[in-house]
Amino acid sequence: TPPSKDWQMAKVVIPKGSTSSEVARLLAERKILQHPLVFRMLILGSMTGRRLKFGEYSFPDPPSAVEAWKKLFRGEVTRYSVTIWSEVTGARSICASDKSAKAMKS
């Protein structure tokens, strides 16, 4: 299905301990997945439900079920850049993300 012309960046937070069914529901509720059943079948067929990572995810473009699955399986969480000013060292930028993403329960 071609991307919607009305698509705006979507974000979703996958809570720690979410089941794969809950993840599919969250993605569908946020209108990130057009076909959540395909996403669920992919998880079941690949037996990766317990290896999806929790965290905040950004979708700048409408993903296919496979693209959404890869992002959550790899733990490609949203990253934020923060600048901290110190009179001693000057400005210093850091990138923060949840690198401690753990596998979710299926």
Describe the protein's topology.
Layout: E1 10-14, H1 20-29, H2 36-46, E2 55-59, H3 65-74, E3 80-86, E4 90-96
Antiparallel strand pairs: 1-2, 3-4
Helix pairs in contact: 1-2, 2-3
Describe this structure in words.
By secondary structure, this protein is an alpha+beta fold. It is 29% helix and 23% strand. The protein is built from 3 helices and 4 strands. The chain has helices spanning 20-29, 36-46, 65-74, and strands at 10-14, 55-59, 80-86, 90-96. The chain has a two-stranded antiparallel sheet. Strands 3-4 form a two-stranded antiparallel sheet. α1 packs antiparallel against α2 (36-46). The longest helix is centred in the middle third of the chain and has 11 residues, at 36-46.
List keywords for this structure.
two-stranded antiparallel ribbon; two-stranded antiparallel sheet; single chain; disordered C terminus; alpha+beta; 106 residues; elongated; 4 strands
